[in-house]
Amino acid sequence: MLIFTSGVWAQTPARAVGVTLSPVPIWPQDGDTSKLPKGQYVFYDPPSAEYVVYYAPDSAGEQSVQPTILRFGTHSLVDPEVTFEVAPTGDGRFHYTYKVENGAHARQSIRKISILDYSDSSPQGAGAKWTAHVEPHNERDLATPAVSASAIELTPNSASSSITPGNAMQGLMVDSTSLPGFVSMAFRGDSKSNEYTPDAAASLPKAVRDQLASVMTAALDAKSAMVIGPRFAKGTSQSTLSQNFDFGIQVLVRHKLLDPNSTFVQNARRVLGTQLQSNDEIQLNSASLDFTKDAKTDLEKEIANALEITFAQ
User: Does 289 lie in the same domain as 180?
Assistant: First the structure.
């Protein structure tokens, strides 16, 4: 999980929670392939941080005498911490600014940061010595399936501008008409190994190719985290907004970043739950959000700030 701020940077950001277990079997360090499971063609080699493709004639239906071994680098060995601030710009847009730090024990520099905007077809992004690229994204929001997403990809202008282990980049920005809500942010590391592409795997047998493609996905080959970011179109039903915030708070509680017994958390869940159960007959307003004054920790204050911005529209 990531922690976030508004107005000032948080002093103790929380670490992103990422996948820690390999989605495939571990490649044998002694090189003994005799005990590899049948039908399994993709393995992970922790020392080299590479996925190993291995198939022999008897396991993949090929006539070649020698087994084929290919290696592709992973991009998930980063350790991101994020803080941010968000504020209305006064012209109907919202300005999100992110600070991203890469933990000292990370094995890779952060070379790409991605965030989805589900409501604005033309958000803008920027950063010092970083470039933002925005393109349509085919992922749909389950709550608002008719709305197309935009993918905002932030990349450094040169290798020297990537976020190396133990260092941080401040001032990564997104401007959007979308209201704040919980969204996913993904981080990809700088691999020195062979890069996987569908073309690079095109000559592999279909069974091998499909298994490799299932591993080299954004969900598995990156670190991801839930953050507050550009999320909703103005006019989105309050039940949709409430569901998003209630879910986000539950995730933070589950990861022990919020105290489930705090006055703020209990009141937030109570108010959001009541709104959800009313099928939008109850409409939240500034009086309904009076509980936000009970926010004590930095994280609680930033959730309170996002709630006030989102439900004030």
Answer: no
Residues counted in the chain = 313
pLDDT by residue (tens digit) across 208-252?
A: 999 999 999 877 888 987 889 999 988 999 999 999 999 999 988
Amino acid at 209: R
Same domain, yes or no, for 269 and 224? no
Indicate if 141 and 256 belong to the same structural domain.
no
Q: Which residue intervals of the chain are DSSP H helices?
A: 57-60, 206-215, 238-254, 263-277, 298-311
**pTM (global) more than 0.85:** no
Token duo for residue 250: 């539950």
If DSSP codes are grouped into helix, strand and coil, which group holds residue 288?
helix
Long-range contact pairs involving 44-50 (C-beta distance under 8 Å, separation at least 24): 44/74, 45/71, 46/22, 48/193, 49/73, 49/74, 49/77, 49/107, 49/108, 49/191, 49/193, 50/74, 50/193
Torsion of CA 175, 177, 180, 182, to 10 degrees: -80
> For residues 73 and 193, is the Cβ–Cβ distance under 8 A?
yes
* Structural domain includes residue 75: no
Phi/psi of residue 24, each to 5°? -135, 165
| Calpha distance 52→36 (Å, rounded) | 12
Using a 10 angstrom Cβ sphere, with 0-12 exposed, 13-18 middle and 19 or more buried, the burial of residue 290 is: exposed
Chain segment 35-80, per-residue pLDDT in tens: 889 899 999 999 999 999 998 865 445 555 688 899 999 999 999 9
Query: Can you tell me the distance from the alpha carbon of 141 to that of 153, in angstroms, rounded to the nearest whole number?
Result: 18
Note down the domain range covering 274: 238-311
How far apart, in Å, do the first and last CA atoms of the chain sit?
A: 27
